[in-house]
Protein 1
Amino acid sequence: MLLTRTLLVLFVFAAGAQAVSAAEAWRIVASTGVVKTGAPGVMPVAVNTKQALPVDSWVETGATGRIVLSRGVESIAVGPNSRVMLPALAVNGNTQVLQTVGTALYQIGKQKAPHFQVDTPYLAAVVKGTTFTVSVTEGVASVDVSEGLVEVATPDGAKLDFRVLTAAPNN
């Protein structure tokens, strides 16, 4: 009897822990066209709707590809010819997305302190919660804010608060 109760408690605890872990994973909500995903030690594969992405995943869209990712109140709509990486570890307490090329629309739930950042080769955008688009092309990155305020920093450490910012590397 005691063993049965103990196992039941452990099962409920484990199920709850898995639910929390699954809630923290990025999930694929929708996709069209050519979209691939992968992670360290995981072969790149075509995506499936409602698939939970593994830790340290990346998502890459082809010329016809689009994908929407969701995690709690956060969502990312990735456009064609784009690549985003979703590191598992936070940076300065923030969820981090690495966007190396292409365009992505971010809708981030509001919190009191900054908690989400998008890093590109040319700028970093840090937010408390807002809707904004990041575009990266060869040599240039831009941030377009639809709602809220985004703090943007360039690689040389300059910080700016703007509704629209374009940054290019110093040549």
Protein 2
Amino acid sequence: MPRLPSALSLAALDAASGPARAPAALTDWELALVVLGGSLVAVAVAYRLLALVFRRAQAPQAVRLLERSKQGARALAVSIAGTQLVSLAPAHLQAGLAELARLAVIVAASWVAIGISGLLADLAERRFDVGASDNLRARRAVTQLKIVRRMVVVGIVIIALLVAVTSVPQA
């Protein structure tokens, strides 16, 4: 059986190894990974807390909204964190990375907006009973809602494209 070192021998080892060193600071890229990971953890914690609150308040629509927008919110959090981390990149890459991060924020915000509009359209469609025997009005209303939903998605995409194009600096 191996012999465990005594406190005296551990102290002698510490003294022999030289003075105690302070832990090394994080490099820029390690800091970037910590910030990106922290943003994902913050989004996850916020979603879990909100889901808990909404479930206790018996608000199933709000819980569905959270579930539908979770991936878009993650992408938005990471892209926003990325805009803050551009300054850690080498100087010759900063301009390009800043533009890429700006475009990522626009795409992620559009993704969240499309998810929210889809949920609102689903909630509106639930008001109509298309399973009834005389369902002409309900089917017409649901068809109109589907058309409006597609128009809203196209509008969000067009606005996102316009914002992205106007944010690109002129060469």
Protein 3
Amino acid sequence: MKASTALLPLALAMTLLTAGPGQAAPVLSLASTDATVPTGGEFSVSVDIADVTDLFGYNLSVSYEPAKVRFVSLSEGRFLSDVNTTFFVPGIDDGSGLVSFSGAALIGPIAGATGSGNLLSFIFAGVGPGTARFALSDVLLIDSALASLDVDTQVLDVTVPRNLLAGIQVV
């Protein structure tokens, strides 16, 4: 009995040393090709996922400031479609500053995507001076068992500078 009691602390120490750290939640981020965009200039905003395991599908909305930027278009990224065929819903923009219900899901009884990559790419255009904030909302990620996945999100700021030549006619 003493021998087994003496081994208990050793077994506990071995378990703690070999157990890996808890897995952090994947990160859903917004990134842009440009931090500053001229009025009328187009730029892309990508929605990227990092460190996800078994992503089978997602749904999300992206908010923006319509007085500073205008939504132009949206396309599906390759993160899920590189795994298999997807069902893609491009989203609805009502002009009020929200592209809602954008999402995709893999088709068929397969494992989801693991790793990091691009989910969506938006094109916006600068329309008014100031800093335009982009944020994610209504985020739902699911795995291949259709269970929701925890996720951390990040925002993005893009500056549209005041057009110094506005109102000046060049002859």
